[in-house]
Amino acid sequence: MISITARIGIEESEIEESFVRSSGPGGQNVNKVETAVQLRFDARRSPSLPNDVSIRLQKLAGSRLTQDGVIIIIAQTHRSQERNRAEALERLVAMIREAAKPPPPKRRPTKPTKGSQQRRLESKTRRADIKKGRSFKANE
After folding, report:
1. With the CA atoms of 7, 8, 9 and 15 taken in that order, what torsion angle do they form, in degrees rounded to the nearest 10?
2. What is the pLDDT of residues 5-58, one digit of tens each?
3. Which of 131, 121, 29 is nearest to 80 (CA)?
4. Contacts for 5 with CB less than 8 Å, ≥ 6 apart
5. DSSP track, 65-101
6. Which of 59, 88, 109, 118 has its Cβ near the most Cβ atoms within 10 Å?
């Protein structure tokens, strides 16, 4: 069981990992060993995630989400398979944690008060008078 938040945890059996050869640092190791990790998590059909979290997670995944609702995370920055596995899992957990946060409440538009409207108009009038006083009158 991988703990995400106090209420959410996902089973390790829900995560599917496959290993491929990676590009990047590693010299001859890159050509011989499959160090890159391709992590797959079915966000749409996961029994561990509440429905609202699943929907937010799918929106958050963006281009990493397939048509079937599977999130694919590829990690290949490290030379070792273990570190890439840990990084991919870390990124998935961070994404689920972000989706678990409830969205902020919608802003309710309010009207400006009478006093604030009056102060705004008075300051505009004062400013206009100041600017009017600066004008050069050639015909006087």
Report:
1. 180
2. 767 777 777 788 888 777 766 666 666 777 788 888 888 888 888 888 888 888
3. 29
4. 97, 100
5. B-TTSEEEEEE-SSSSHHHHHHHHHHHHHHHHHHHHS
6. 88
Structural domains of the chain ordered from first start: 2-100 (3.30.160.20)
Burial 33-60 (b: 16+ CB within 10 A, else e): eebbbbbbbbbeebeebeeebbebbbee
Question: Who's near 80: CB < 8 A, 6+ residues apart?
Answer: 35
**Pairing of β 9-10 and β 15-20:** unpaired
CB 65 within 8 A of CB 31: no
| Residue-level pLDDT at 18 | 80
Three-class DSSP category at 118: helix
Non-local (6+) Cβ contacts of 91 within 8 A are 73, 75
Distance (Å, rounded) from C-alpha 122 to C-alpha 128?
A: 10
Length, in residues, of the chain = 140
